[in-house]
Write a structure and sequence with these properties.
The chain is α/β, with parallel strands linked by helices. The protein has 17 helices and 22 strands. It has three domains: 200 residues, FAD/NAD(P)-binding domain; 103 residues; 105 residues, Polyamine Oxidase, Chain A, domain 2 (Alpha-Beta Complex), CATH 3.90.660.20. Helix 11 packs across helix 14. 44% of the residues are buried.
Length: 488
């Protein structure tokens, strides 16, 4: 039975900032326990954050692409409980486009070396051997990858795409990002697995990989988070769209209230007993009033983010290419990645004979791409997709542009120390927690963001596990045992 004892008083309600996967997961857990929950979401229309699904003239598309998979049985069960039969299985196919050729992704050694040609392949192998004999100290992303693949393969398959994504040289990206996102990969391991595919000991069968298939809501990831929003509201929780935080008022070791501004410019001060916040960590720190210490503000001011533009193209043809998405390593175009949403779910398009492509451009707020008018971005996307030979301009009927600020927290060298300084300051407040990717400045996945939210919510019912300690285990991103995969 839900207990509501005095929890509807303003100083007893829980204020959740952000209606992305983390915020909605926390709010759902709290509403189910009987707490009075208010969610504030900056966007006036969509919930889901970067995991939203945008609707345009009957077409649906993601901000990026969002597979649903997790090592956590709890998270997997959470997803299935909400989607039921609306959760579909999707066969995964993704490739790298480089110099007019396609390469398998995740990288398969034989496919990569065969596609590069004999001479380049020989040089790549020699470069790899040299890296094994004379490894370099791992101070940056480039060091980490070169030690495992050799400098030549690093330059071919990692450098150009990574620098497109982050907008800075690989030498200025922390090795911690590589260790988190591509841990466990190496050229020798890839070759060995190509010769002797790993098998499940009990069944003596090849290990099932998460590259083969994944779960996906039939109408896109936004369907998951819209259903979660509706569930919260049915339990009495409230959500205020188009509302952002402009200040957190605090005294001693407690945050007492938050000042908000809505989409019409109206301001309000809201009291709450607890605050669970998934807004970007830099903005969070700067919103405290009185200001936090100078060292904490300086650390927050150094936090960096990468922003993101999706140009959705509506093409009057079907079966354009078989991939769910393609990584574009060709430096002659600005596109970083291309999604084919028909291949995620046929229900993402309004009918037969059409395709929705999502062309992803990585940028910084205020740079040339970000400031480009929508019609110019659509024209650029048309030219580039045609240049790559993936669709003809004459077949493209329409286009739509979506900009997403702070899509990715940037792991610059030294970011860990800055985050640590901020964490220590915020943990001094007994009723304030940060969660999720941007809230904790951790480039984690959807399931990790959700787990930080669940732990934050459970701390209010007496559990002591710290959301900061949620493990970011990248190893399972591409591989998991057949037993675990089939038991969920």
């Amino acid at each position: 039975m839900r207990s509501t004892q005095n929890r509807n008083q303003p100083d007893q309600q829980i204020l959740v900032v952000g209606a992305g996967p983390a915020g909605l997961t926390a709010a759902s857990a709290l509403a189910e326990t009987g707490f009075s929950v208010v969610i504030l979401e900056k966007d006036a229309e969509y919930v889901g954050g970067i995991a939203r699904t945008v609707r345009y003239k009957g077409f649906r598309f993601d901000i990026g692409g969002h597979r649903f998979f997790s090592k956590s049985d709890e998270i997997t069960a959470w997803w299935h409980a909400r989607m039921g039969k609306d959760f579909i299985k999707v066969r995964r196919m993704s490739r790298i486009f480089y110099r007019g050729r396609f390469f398998d992704y995740p990288l398969k050694a034989w496919n990569a070396l065969a596609g590069l040609g004999v001479w380049t392949s020989v040089l790549c192998v020699l470069s790899y051997i040299l890296a094994k004999i004379f490894p370099t100290p791992e101070n940056s992303f480039s060091d980490w990858v070169a030690n495992r693949f050799g400098k030549r393969l690093f330059k071919i398959f990692f450098e150009s795409y990574t620098e497109k994504v982050w907008g800075v040289p690989c030498s200025q990206i922390s090795a911690d990002w590589a260790a988190q996102r591509i841990r466990g990969l190496s050229l020798s391991r890839a070759v060995w697995h190509a010769i002797c595919p790993p098998r499940n000991r009990a069944q003596k069968a090849p290990i099932k990989t998460l590259t083969e298939e994944f779960n996906y809501p039939r109408l896109g990831p936004g369907m998951m988070w819209e259903k979660t929003r509706d569930d919260i509201q049915e339990l009495g929780g409230r959500i205020r769209m188009g509302t952002e935080i402009t200040a957190f008022q605090w005294s001693g070791n407690r945050v007492e209230s938050a000042t908000t501004t809505d989409q019409w410019g109206e301001t309000e001060t809201m009291q709450a007993g607890q605050f669970i916040v998934s807004m970007p960590l830099r903005d969070c720190v700067m919103a405290f009033h009185p200001p936090l210490s100078e060292s904490v503000r300086q650390a927050a001011d150094k936090l960096k983010y990468r922003d993101f533009i999706t140009v959705a193209l509506m093409v009057g043809k079907k079966d354009i290419f078989p991939d769910n998405w393609i990584y574009v390593h060709d430096p002659s175009v600005k596109i970083g990645r291309i999604q084919n949403f028909n291949n995620w779910s046929s229900e993402m398009v309004p009918g037969e004979g059409v395709t929705c492509l999502g062309l992803e451009y990585f940028c910084f707020v205020g740079d040339e791409l970000w400031r480009m008018p929508d019609e110019d971005l659509v024209a650029l996307a048309k030219r580039e997709i045609a240049k790559l030979g993936l669709a003809a301009e004459k077949d493209i009927d329409d286009g739509c542009v979506v900009r997403m600020e702070k899509a990715y927290p940037l792991y610059y060298p030294g970011y860990e120390e800055d985050v640590s300084i901020i964490r220590s300051a915020l943990e001094a407040f007994e009723n304030f927690q940060v969660i999720g990717r941007n809230g904790m400045h951790k480039y984690n996945n959807q399931d990790h963001s959700m787990m930080t939210a669940l732990l934050a919510a459970r701390r209010l019912t007496g559990e002591k596990r710290n959301p900061w300690n949620v493990n970011i285990d990248a190893e399972y991103h591409e591989e998991q045992s057949a037993i675990n995969a089939t038991s969920k």
